[in-house]
Amino acid sequence: MGILITFEGIDGSGKSTIAAEIARRIAEEEGPPFAGRHFLFTAEPTEGEEGRLIREKLKRATRTTGDQGQRAKEAEQLEELFLFMADHARHMAGTVIPALERGMVVISDRYSDSRVAYQGATLRGIIPRPLEWVRELHRPWSVVPERTVLFSIDPSLAVERCLSRQEGSSSERRKAPEKFEREEFLGEVARNFELMARSEPERFVVIDASRGKAEILEETLAALAKILSGTKK
């Protein structure tokens, strides 16, 4: 059986950039603990049908914020959660579990913890104890990661990075930030991630993502080396 490692953090934490760089470095690494191992880098939301629907829905939500009644908004948040869960289920069945059964190291940029942190924030005031509720929805059927690397960053800096990313894009007109890129919301999500990390210290590895890319990359590679050195190939 392989090993599942997940990368988590709020939007703007830089985890996707680090994941891409690690994939490149591992492909070039000849020595232990990466030698002789087969890696699969993947992400959620996926590029499948459910992932496409999620992205369209988030863009729609940005344009229609404030135009709906309270009940309609609550229904939208629940629909969003279940879309993410459907995407997660297909990702597990079609990608994660087959790779683990082949003995691969699976590194996923976002996984079920993002649902707990993000939807735990969007469902506050709609569902009692939303973090626990979302976690329990996943518990009977989702594969729990062996380790989760949490890229921790101040939400204000994360928003600055999101805005810089927009300014550096080829789009002529800067779009309004998605709800997942707003500072107040990201602050609540960051607190949810912190709560999870404190409740499962044996699974979470917390990395300060406010530093430069090179420093974060080296610390993440060292964390991966430590995780893999304790597992069988």
Structure overview:
The chain has 8 helices and 5 strands, in the order βαβααβααβααβα. It is an alpha/beta fold and 233 residues long. It has one domain (3-229): P-loop containing nucleotide triphosphate hydrolases (Rossmann fold), CATH 3.40.50. It has a 5-stranded parallel β-sheet, with helices on both faces. α4 (112-122) packs across α7 (183-199) and α6 packs across α7 (183-199). It is globular.
Entry keywords:
alpha/beta, Rossmann fold, 5-stranded parallel beta sheet, 8 helices, globular
Note the topology.
Elements (H helix, E strand, L loop, with lengths): L2 E6 L6 H14 L10 E5 L5 H16 L5 H32 L3 E5 L2 H11 L7 H9 L8 E6 L2 H13 L15 H17 L4 E5 L4 H17 L4
Parallel strand pairs: 1-3, 1-4, 2-3, 4-5
Helix pairs in contact: 2-3, 3-4, 4-5, 4-7, 6-7
CATH H-tier superfamily: P-loop containing nucleotide triphosphate hydrolases
Ranges where pLDDT stays below 50 over 5 or more residues in a row are 170-174
Average pLDDT works out at 90
CATH topology: Rossmann fold
Q: Sheet with the most strands?
A: 5 strands, parallel
Q: From the coordinates shown, what is the CATH architecture? A: 3-Layer(aba) Sandwich
Number of helices: 8
Helix content: 55-70%
**Fraction of residues in β-strands:** 5-15%
Query: Which secondary-structure class do the elements indicate?
Result: alpha/beta
Quaternary state reads: single chain
| Radius of gyration, taken over Cα atoms and rounded to an integer in Å | 18 Å
* N-to-C order of helices and strands: EHEHHEHHEHHEH
Any idea of the CATH class?
A: Alpha Beta
Q: CA-to-CA gap between the ends?
A: 9 Å
Total tally of structural domains: 1
Shape: globular
Strand order of the largest sheet: 2-3-1-4-5
